[in-house]
## 1
Amino acid sequence: LILRIKKQIREQLSPRHVPAFILPIADIPYTINGKKIETIVKRIISGEAITPSETIANPE
């Protein structure tokens, strides 16, 4: 699946846009308003601790 994703990106955009790594995940954290919380995603990838927040719609 990862190879197919990278191939599609390479063909439809350019080799420069292919990410170095792709991680399969169960869910992306969103705010109650439906916006992606990119800072939490970056912290998860970096292995940093995450503090629970009341603004997260799907904290699990």
Note: Residues 2-12 form the longest helix (11 residues).
## 2
Amino acid sequence: EKMVLWCIIWCCEQRNAGEWNSPAETRKSPWDFSL
């Protein structure tokens, strides 16, 4: 389902972004994406 897809993408982005970006900048809520 679409929700599952963007949830996985969001989780991956959080994990990847944490390595080279500031948490405050990358820690976006999944609801920020247009659904």
Note: The CA atoms of residues 6 and 34 lie 10 Å apart.
## 3
Amino acid sequence: MSGSYRKVEGIFYPQDSIRCFYWIEGEKNNPPMLFLPGYTGTYAEVEGFTKLLTGDFLVITPDLPGWGKSDAPKEDLNLQYYGRYLGKLLDHLNIEKINVVGHCMGAAVAFEFAYQFPNRINNLILVSTPYLNNTIRGKIFSLLAQASSNVPPIIRPIFFFWRNRLFQSVMDIFSLKFKTKKQKLNFILKTIKTQHLQNEKAVEDAWNSMVCYDYSKAKQIKKRVHLIHGDEDLLVSKNQAQRFRSLWGDTTLDFIPGSGHIPPLESPQSLAEIIKKYLGNEKNP
């Protein structure tokens, strides 16, 4: 990359006829950071948060294939696919090593990328990792995911009942930890209005891969890892975050007071401060 960037929208073709979008924000001399949004998340949703990091980092945020403005390929959109995709994206950007921050599904994708390309990671920060191993909820989701792959597409929505707008709205009322009721209501209404725009293949493939993912790979990831979690996360508990931490020998874990499962939107300032404190102003080797 050359020149000084403030905000650039880029297009990348990882394969024939598949067009994927990414955004670059910040000064070119800052250490590069890859930020991966959460499940169903897009750059448009996290733009306010990523701007908080641009004073210290050159932030690259993709709409992963099948999400937002990016096309969906015919392949299964599982975590392994997304890990390979990120390798191609960094090749396209001529970046050899990078700091990687992922939220929710983005954390799982970042984890898989670190497993596939350990030498391309400087630091790995995982926010609200969807680690549900050995939980009743995780077992139920895993069974539903496995069952959904054996039924016709027309029946498949039954196995994703949590996407029902009424069910999701009720869950959001209790689980979201925005600072004001207005912020919470706006988020719920936006989710309801935009759900029909989501690519169903991406929604189903990514979810099934995420809930069945093998996190025992952590033992093979030797890079510096930092975990961040909302201390009021009702989807992945604090105890579960501690269990996830135990997969590594030397891993740090910060809890954000008053935050739920989506700190980039619920507690953006606090999350940005932790990330900047952790990474500091270090330059890539």
Note: The chain is about 40% helix and 20% strand.
